[in-house]
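Q: Joint fold for the lines below.
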Amino acid sequence: MLVTLPILVPLLACAACLALWGRVRAQQVVAVATAALMVVVGVTLLHAVLTQGIQAAALGGWAAPYGVALVADPLGAVMVLLTAIVGLAVAVFSIGGTTEARWANGHAALMLAMLGAISGAFVSGDLFNIYVWFELMLLSSFVLLTLGGERAQLEGAIKYVTLNLLSSMVFLAGVGLVYASTGTLNLADLAIRLDAMDDAQRATALGAPLLVAFAIKAAAFPLYFWLPASYHTPPPVVSALFAGLLTKVGVYTLIRVTTLVFDQERALLADAVLLTAGLTMVSGVLGAMSQNDIRRILSFHIVSQIGYMLMGLGIALHAMPPGDPAVLPETAVLALSGAVFYIIHHIVVKTNLFLIAGAIQAERGTGDLERLGGMARTHPVLAGLFLFSALSLAGIPILSGFWAKVILVRAGLEEGTYLIVGVSLAVSLLTLFSMMKIWTRAFWGEPAEPRATPSAGAWARLVPIWFLASITLAIALGAPWVYEFATSAAQAALLPDAYIETVLPGPEVGVQPATPETGGRP
Amino acid sequence: MNSVIFRSSTQVLLPFMLTVSVVVLFRGHNEPGGGFVGGLLAASGFALHAMAFGYRSAQDTLRIDPRVLIGVGLFIAAGSGIPSLLVGEAYLQGLWITLEPYGFPEPLKVGTPLAFDVGVYLLVLGAAFLMVCTLEEYRHDADDGS
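A: Joint structure:
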């Protein structure tokens, strides 16, 4: 029952916000309280997964593979928790970071619907159900993106929605093909049936459309244009929410299906993923060099960092022997734990950098580096928080990004994939360059004239930034523990026997039909 | 639309359509129908009213802001799965009780799926009506501008 709560809580709160239409203050209270409750649910779920093993539930009592299964393994549970943390920071920041008119037009309900959809995608154990969450995510994010209806917003939103709809279409076509070939959409059941089909090429071909769709969602090379075209257009707090979570859903589903379902031709997948990872890193970081707006630079860096996560996945697939090994190769676990560590670190840091960009914009009225300057003198606290987050992102030793990259690089060296290691180190350097560009142009130099009236609600902007910065610090200082957790998450993902056992218990799985009388329970 | 025939017939049709929509809603569990179709029927009744008397009059007839209707509907539908959670069953699993009201020919089965359907009914009614109103509003504004 715990697994349903990450979806249920935000969905009910979204309904409540709609029912409270027009009452902005009440909606703000509901949004913040719900996000806080989601953090509690996330912590409880993660604790339950770590102490009692993988949690699963069947919606409506219709047992898998017939009903929709919700599953939380360590990876899914930590993603749910991170979603809640980002949600809390963004909900509080929204109080001081967006206009009253936005709230009055459904900001809270949309935000909560999106958080619910993202959590849903993380705990769903059913391919079509994941599609539904993707659509809800796309719809709510599209409205969040266009609310206000400025020219730039609509221009960005059209690119965003076109490419994402393309991805949804490819996804749905893939779901249809999979269902036609196997007769099931439950991920655990699919894993069994595709292995039993004993036709590796066919299985991989079935997976191809899904992998392409998820890669578009993850903003991987070559179809990443929607991201830098749209993320700088809405109010900063919305960009922060998108930046932290949306692409990571794509990465998560990629990890999930390549390790659980389509693991028949790992060597082929590994090459494709590694190639995509390298190109994504390079094209993202090069795109950032030519930009002059803080949020545009940060958007391109999201793309580049998706490459690191894919790199971890690629090396892990590369290191796995064919078939289902009894013992996992250490390098594969190391590489995937690097990817998990990177995702954990990235979600927190990236959201925070966008929130800081939002705070700058609220103080100075612009995010354009040409018109900023001297923020270090006028806003020393904000400057310090930016420097800390930016260096964490670039991976300066002992900060959180450093550990993530060390794990990935070490896995790459062990596996002998030197090219991707070299690329990742070079990209790291360029990331540092970009961060320093923002630092020198926005925070050093002569202060430009401040905005006549900085918008109100400065506390609501600073509190979430401190909150996320302290989590970043905790990840850096508690790196051994985070690493230990990431290792167990990687093991559970790479060796999904426990996952399949939990979703489909019993030996004669898949033969007894579910009946309405028993509600599908055996 | 300025037509006496249309207006007069709408006044008869609206209550009729609302009644049918409720019938469709209630028989929906075992026979064709349900919350979605019922909600659409009800919304089309109000859309008819909006066409005959203007969307403002339709809004007044509905009395409740359609957005609130969406919220309440979603809340009831999503909340209808909670009782089964509380008794330790799966989320959204149907719980049924059998009532034997006085004078009824046969026992009456009532359960949480009914609440789900009612929620869907309200949600669909609110959403569809909101779309009609928004489109009408645009047309209205465009007419004013010309």
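Q: Anything notable?
A: Residues 508-522 of chain A have pLDDT under 50 and may be disordered. The two ends of chain A are 18 Å apart (CA to CA).
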